Amino acid sequence: MEQFAFYLFSVLTIGLFLVTVLSNNVLYAMTSLAAGMVIISGFFFILGADFLGVVQLIVYVGAVMALYSFGMMFFDATREIKEKNSNAYLVFFLGGMIALLLVVMFSAPIMGEGIVAMYPSPEGANNPQAVGLVLFTKYLVPFEVAAVMLLVAMIAGIILAGKKMDDSLTTKDENHEEEMTFSLKDVR
Amino acid sequence: MIELSHYLVVSGILFSIGVVGVLRRKNLLMLFFATEIMLNAANIAFAAVSSYYGDLSGQMFAFFIIAVAASEVAVGLGLLIVLYKKQGTLDLDDLAVMKG
């Protein structure tokens, strides 16, 4: 049963992500990406990482995909994307080779012997409890740093996609400059 | 029982799909989608290694990757909206204004 689920999920994710990468329609790409995210959470449930699967569902399928759909309102989504590709086969070849190299590089230490668990999962605790125990003891500082990073991202998102989208962010506002000189004169 | 290498192979295939997407697409939104695919492939590998060695560090790193991906999307989509308002296109060939 587990094997059946694994192979079904892997075939489905590979197919859906291929649609995402190769499709010319933004809506098709986004929909298949969302479906692939849901199925990836299935991988996590097979692996016994229940909390990670739920977080994947909430954050990716819930938040990130909703953000993309909102962003899609600003772009012309129904139009087909026209791209000119100079040499597609070279791209596929290079992509495959780079990925193969990365897999070999990163799987080399794993195949070695004598790997012991640094933070083994606590006895008698189910997955969310164990995650909580490790996250709030060993990984507390990275957790706080991630919180600050999310705050920075939120402020940046609000400022970038805020109400004054007609004004340029890089060039100076002339009215504002006049105001500044006026206030300087005022002080003198 | 599925071996660890099966998960790593699936993760590598998904990562290579993402790499092909990054190399092939010319639309910035599609580049973001390909980046998400690559991050998810890394997440699968982390979760698989964490589960097979009984170590929770892999899952922790997967959480932090999800947090990084969420903030990346928030900032990146803001930048894309500003760029689209300014240039009217998201095509990388049209945006290449620094051609020598």
How would you characterize this protein structure?
The complex is a heterodimer of chains A (188) and B (100). Chain A has helices spanning 2-22, 26-46, 50-72, 88-111, 127-135, 140-160, 174-187. Chain A has 188 residues and is an all-alpha fold. The radius of gyration of chain A is 24 Å and the shape is globular. Helices cover 82% and strands 0% of the residues of chain B. Chain B has four helices and no strands. Chain B is elongated, with a radius of gyration of 17 Å. At the A-B interface, α1, α2, α3, α4 and α5 of A face α1, α2 and α3 of B.
Quick structural overview:
Chain A is mostly helical and 188 residues long. Chain A is 71% helix and 0% strand.
Portion in beta strands of chain B: under 5%
N- to C-terminal distance of chain B: 56 Å
What is the approximate shape of chain A?
globular
Question: Do you know the CATH architecture of chain B?
Answer: Orthogonal Bundle
**Termini separation of chain A (Å)?**
82 Å
- What's the order of the H and E elements of chain A? HHHHHHH
What is the helix content of chain A? over 70%
Radius of gyration of chain A: 24 Å
